[in-house]
Design goal:
three-stranded parallel sheet, 14% strand
Length: 396
Amino acid sequence: MKRLSAFFLSLLLALSILPQPQAKAEPVTINVYNWGQYISDGTDGYIDVNKAFTEATGIEVNYMTFDTNETMYTKLKTGGSSYDIIIPSDYMVARLIAEDMLEEIDFSNIPNYKYVDEAYRNTSYDPENKYSVPYTWGTVGVIYNTKYVDEADTGSWDLLWNTKYDGKILMFDNPRDAFAISELLLGIDINSEDRDELRTAAYKLIEQKPLVQAYVMDQIFAAMEREEAWIAPYYAGDYLLMVEENPDLGFYFPEEGFNLFIDAICIPKGCQNKAAAEAYINFLCDPEVNAENLEYLGYSTPLSEAKQYMDPDMVESEIAYPPEEVLEGGGAFINLSSETSQYTDSLWLEVKTQGGVDTYAIVCMAAVAVFLVIYFIVHRIKTKKRLANRCRKWKT
């Protein structure tokens, strides 16, 4: 299925929950803030979601992107920009709810919510089901180039620490995903708030650093497709896009476990066009729109109703829709305390910019050493002076 039928477009127009703007009225525009490369844009014959929404409702879409949850959070927290729609991941949704940064959604404006599977309602990150609607779900694993990587080396997260592939390894450029990989490899809970465990995970990342070609997010596409890098941890849905450009790419779920996540659609506080934002959410939840959008993205749909409109190969993919025994190895992130988040951020900064968690300790030790050297030099000079004075006194 590559395009919407004329009947479906007509149906969208008929079911629009907002009236078309009057000829002389200013058009309504919503500001949408989403991950990069995370919506079908009309390429390869698929639906252009934002364009189709505008055609169906008359509402314009100003579309902007971010590369990490933390970037999005900082932009919201510092203000200066107004968004009507954001699409954060599960643990970030919980954080935004806890900090009163989201609007409650009026579900009477989202009749297509009825298609959302029960498994994705009343989740741990939004237990009262007031602030979010699921957009996609997915997993994290290891992408590797089968031409250059020995199959015997695959299966574990330790491939990212394998010195055979020095300079050909990419790593996540965000602390939550990076620390989770280190923690899984070390047998530490991915939601640990124990500072000693976090420090240990940071040491493991520092051990990896000399092998890392670059810390990336969206840049992974070009690097892996062009074979500039051979190994990278990333989202399974994006692997399905990359392998279309480079069939030599492979993927596996590490034996130590992996992140299993949900990304959700939310309306932030400060939204200027809430009803229009809810119309947009409703549009994304239409099974046919959802099917084309997620088939293009490669991510998994939280709407079983949409699968009937998808290519059977996508629905049967064990990467997009892993069997239950594989999913049992997945774990979800939860919202960590602000103190833990700040501490992890500081460790991550050390990993990336200074290369050692104990830089401060080393500096202190060096300062102490310098002090001791100066002390002994001064002490020795004073001792010599005292001896010289005694000698002069004895001679007189």
